[in-house]
Structure to design on (404 residues):
């Protein structure tokens, strides 16, 4: 009988993982349902995880805007007392995006088999993350699914808006960097050799700047394959190192120490942590489960380590603010707000306030950084072009001496 590996959580929020023997994937889901386990991942031991990952990687990605729109439409139908299966059927027939339409069809089939909405969504982990599924499960259990879905839609739209602002701010500097690099590459590989080639065979000493420019140009024209091999080797080496958790932990800690960039990453991580934790707590997700999911959403492993310790201490009866206060990664503003929320019983509101504050700080800092980066890029391009011009003109100024 085939064996299936599963990862998920129980009805009380505790994590569950292991294996189950069943004749088919459907039977495995039924056995887990009888054990009151909601699987977030269910794979056959005979299946190749690599092939699964590659298949998911090449699937068409569902935009966050479409996911937020689907969530809001579903919330509207649920609030109107439309049964879940009928609501999914209506949304499936209406959807135009092929990947989302196929996904809704699979979810609808699971609902027809008797699975609750959260369990049906949990089997699409590439689209519905653990935080999404946990909040839907809490909404179903509390009878407030429509309100939970509305909060989810609002959260997804805020995240998409924040990402759009960052992408818009980076678009112009990235375009300038790409265009400037292309222009310099064209000058060094095609233009410079023709202009400075007339000085290369002269016995007189050329200026250092000209010699350096000719060396770089020759390297690009004749040794480009070495540069390509070096680039491929660096990418391959990084991918090998990225499989080691110790390397990833050191990398994440190093990223937080980079001037300007590290501060932005910290602010973004804090905003995401506060927002997601507040959303899950207000939706009825238990605190321990909410902390676990928030740690996964933060991504940075330095924050994950602190939140894992916080989850252990909170489970033993400690306070969240007390644990975070001991870490330099969490500023006093956040820890004080959490402490006030724990004492007054308004932790969700305190976290929401902190999340809004960090998001505004991130947007303001990003705007200032991009405003400073644009003139710096123009200056860098001007300096690079100036060096090329000087390397060409210096031998011309010394032309009389070179002839002699």
């Amino acid at each position: 009988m085939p064996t299936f590996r599963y990862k998920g959580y129980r009805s009380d929020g505790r994590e569950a993982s292991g294996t189950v023997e069943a004749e088919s994937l459907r039977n495995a889901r039924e056995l887990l349902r009888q054990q009151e386990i909601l699987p977030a991942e269910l794979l056959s031991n005979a299946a190749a995880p690599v092939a699964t990952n590659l298949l998911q990687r090449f699937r068409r990605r569902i935009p966050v805007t479409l996911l937020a729109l689907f969530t809001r439409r579903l919330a509207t139908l649920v609030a109107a007392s439309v049964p879940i299966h009928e609501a999914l059927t209506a949304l499936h027939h209406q959807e135009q995006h092929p990947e989302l339409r196929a996904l809704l069809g699979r979810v609808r089939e699971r609902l027809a088999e008797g699975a609750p909405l959260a369990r049906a969504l949990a089997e699409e982990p590439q689209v519905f993350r653990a935080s999404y599924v946990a909040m839907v499960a809490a909404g179903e259990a509390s009878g407030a699914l429509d309100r939970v879905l509305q909060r989810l839609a609002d959260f997804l739209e805020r995240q998409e808006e924040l990402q759009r602002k960052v992408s818009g701010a980076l678009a112009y500097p990235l375009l300038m960097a790409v265009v400037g690099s292309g222009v310099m590459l064209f000058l060094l590989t095609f233009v410079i050799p023709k202009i400075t080639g007339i000085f290369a065979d002269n016995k007189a000493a050329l200026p250092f700047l000209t010699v350096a420019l000719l060396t770089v140009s020759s390297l690009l024209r004749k040794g480009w394959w070495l540069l390509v091999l070096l680039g491929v080797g660096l990418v391959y080496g990084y991918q090998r190192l990225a499989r080691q958790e110790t390397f990833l932990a050191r990398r994440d800690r190093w990223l937080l120490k980079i001037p300007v960039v590290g501060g932005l990453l910290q602010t973004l991580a804090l905003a995401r942590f506060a927002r997601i934790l507040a959303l899950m707590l207000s939706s009825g997700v238990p605190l321990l489960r909410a902390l676990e999911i928030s740690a996964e959403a933060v991504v940075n492993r330095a924050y994950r380590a602190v939140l894992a310790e916080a989850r252990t201490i909170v489970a033993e009866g400690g306070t969240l603010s007390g644990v975070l206060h001991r870490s330099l990664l969490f500023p006093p503003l956040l820890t004080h707000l959490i402490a006030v929320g724990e004492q007054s019983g308004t932790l969700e509101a305190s976290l929401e306030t902190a999340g809004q504050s960090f998001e505004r700080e991130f947007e303001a800092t990003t705007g200032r950084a991009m405003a400073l980066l644009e003139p710096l890029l123009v200056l860098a391009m001007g300096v690079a072009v100036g060096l090329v011009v000087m390397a060409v003109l210096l031998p011309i100024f010394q032309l009389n001496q070179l002839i002699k």
Q: What stands out?
A: The two ends are 91 Å apart (CA to CA). The mean pLDDT is 82. The beta strands are 3-10, 15-21, 37-44. The longest strand covers residues 3-10.
